[in-house]
Each structure stands twice: as structure tokens, then as C-alpha cells.
Amino acid sequence: MRVAIASDHAGFRLKEALKPALAELDVTVEDLGCYDEQSVDYPDYALKVARGVAAGTYDRGILICGTGLGMCITANKVRGVRAVTAHDTFSARMSRLHNDANVLTMGERVIGPGLAAEVVRVWLDTEFEGGRHQRRVDKIRDAETGAGGIIEAHPLPHEGRC
């Protein structure tokens, strides 16, 4: 399995702490940056990883920022990426079993390195269950391509009312 990892400055220390844990797993890891704690823009690194996963260069991606949220939002803008933020092993496992998530995001300000390593291990070791979940993942793919999905935001009939 080929895994890309990246962070912004707020996730740099956790990314570095995860590298030894990743080395113990049966994966090939490529660090796409950042390479120090100098301030950078998280979308630049999220897009590098997400585009690599979407293109098939990497099987999975791991992104780390302060909360994991900005990275997740950005990665999900890339067609073919199903990014999730997970700070516990149950969410990590379910994101693979039911959603076939291919990018994991975490926040250095949210999770410690020991638990983060376990979350990554569970996420990488869990395979997609398929079955009824494949139909749902297919619907997500259809929405990305415009086949049966709402691509642009439209006001709902009840907007503006409680």
C-alpha cells in the first residue's frame, strides 16, 4: 500500500511523530510536506495528497493540521476523495468499512501521538465492506460527476424559516 502524508505547520509535530509508527506497518509512505513549523497554508498540502490519491499515485492519504477539519474540507473538494476526520478508532474503522474513506485527517491540537498512531493503524488495516455500502459510495461518486446529484447549492423550500 502506498500512503501519502502531509501537514501544515500546526500538524507538523504529529506528522513527524507518526512516521516511526507508519514505518512499522506494511506500507510505503511519502511525505509531501510541510517540512518544518514555518507558517504555511493547509489547502496547498491537502490538495497535494488528495490529488495524488484521486490520481491513483497513492492508495490512501493522511493529512494533519491543527484540528483536521480544514484539511478534510479541502481534500473533499477533489473528485474521487472521501476524506474523514477521525480521532478515535471506532470512527476510523467505520469510515473504511462503510464509506471506503481514502483520506484520513487528524488534528494535532485534538489527539495525542499514541492514540493517533492507533487510529492510523486501524484505518490502514480496515478494508471496505462493500455490499449495501457500495451502493451508497456509488451515489457519492454520482453526485461528484453530476449524475443524479445536486452539484450546486439551491435554496430549499423551507430556507429562512425555523
Can you summarize this structure?
By secondary structure, this protein is an alpha/beta fold.
Topology at a glance:
Layout: E1 2-7, H1 12-23, E2 28-31, H2 42-55, E3 60-65, H3 69-75, E4 83-85, H4 89-97, E5 103-107, H5 113-125, H6 132-145
Parallel strand pairs: 1-2, 1-3, 3-5, 4-5
Helix pairs in contact: 1-5, 2-3, 4-5
Provide the descriptors you would attach to this structure in a database record:
single chain; 43% helix; 6 helices; five-stranded parallel beta sheet; alpha/beta; 162 residues; Ribose 5-phosphate Isomerase B, Chain: A; globular
How are strands sequenced across the largest beta sheet? 2-1-3-5-4
What overall form do the CA principal axes indicate?
globular
What's the name of the CATH homologous superfamily? Sugar-phosphate isomerase, RpiB/LacA/LacB
Number of strands: 5
Mean pLDDT: 93
Give the distance, in angstroms, between the N- and C-terminal Cα atoms. Answer: 48 Å
Overall number of domains: 1
- Tell me the β content: 5-15%
The portion of residues assigned to helices is 40-55%
Helices, by number, come to: 6
What is the CATH architecture term? Answer: 3-Layer(aba) Sandwich
CATH fold description? Ribose 5-phosphate Isomerase B, Chain: A
What is the SS-derived class?
Answer: alpha/beta
CATH class: Alpha Beta
Instruction: Please provide the ordered H/E string of secondary-structure elements.
Output: EHEHEHEHEHH
Uncertain segments are none
Radius of gyration: 16 Å
Major sheet, described briefly?
5 strands, parallel
